[in-house]
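Quick one:
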Amino acid sequence: MDEAPIGTAERAHPVDADALDVRPEVRAALADAAFTPLDTGDGCLAWCRASDDDTHVMISANNDLDGDPQAPDWILGCYGDSGGFVEVSGLTLEAAIEGAALLRAPLRADGSLVEAIYPTLEQALDDLA
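Output:
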């Protein structure tokens, strides 16, 4: 049986962020934005929020729940529950949280699935336009 990609919620299971060493400001910012911590498998952790468009958004600091909020080490990804993904790396925590509100389902205007990693949020949004 094929395993689900790392970004899919099927392989993920909740973790207790309070039991892990996560900066209070990181935990508060992501909890305020309705993200919950997940173990996505293979030793990777991410903050996840389901959307009402059959997608879920994940934010991590290099596959971890914690990192310097000001450092451009954060990764934002939007994953379609039926396939496709868009990831943007090199973000601060604030930019990742703001970007989570902007990313749409990983589909182009012509209906084709997007499976790509982008160096900037602007490039990701342009490709989804």
